[in-house]
Write a structure and sequence with these properties.
With about 140 residues, this protein is α+β, with helices and mostly antiparallel strands. It contains four helices and eight strands. Strands 1, 2, 3, 4, 5, 6, 7 and 8 form an eight-stranded antiparallel sheet that branches. A hairpin with a 4-residue loop joins β5 (about 60-70) and β6. The longest helix has 10 residues, at about 5-10.
Amino acid sequence: MTRDEILEFIKGHPACNLATVDSEGQPHVRGMLMYRADEKGLIFHTGDFKDLWRQITNNPRMELCFFDPKTGVQVRVTGTAQSIDDLTLKEEIVRARPFLKAWVEKNGYDPLKVFRVRGLRATVWTFDKNFEPKEYIDL
């Protein structure tokens, strides 16, 4: 897959697994719903009360895994999260994800934390490529 094909794959399969490491070195993985993927990076959000927020604050390096069960294609992406403090983007996210509206109305926008994952390197896995060495593509 090319860089553009990988970004299109991620856009088409925004549900992913995101792995971080806590301050004691314990890895953690959780399901996430990517907000946006483009040439600037991958955008997702969380709340400042969540373990994920603390883990990223302590160690911004992460890996994300996007999977299409219909084709068996898996795309793993590594990168570094950078905090984005952009009220306009936060408002856009809340409009696009109505489940956040009541929480933001109660708590304001400050506890909503948005990240852009940058410095992306991706590897594509399929059953056909299972025994081949990994190839990395810079996004």
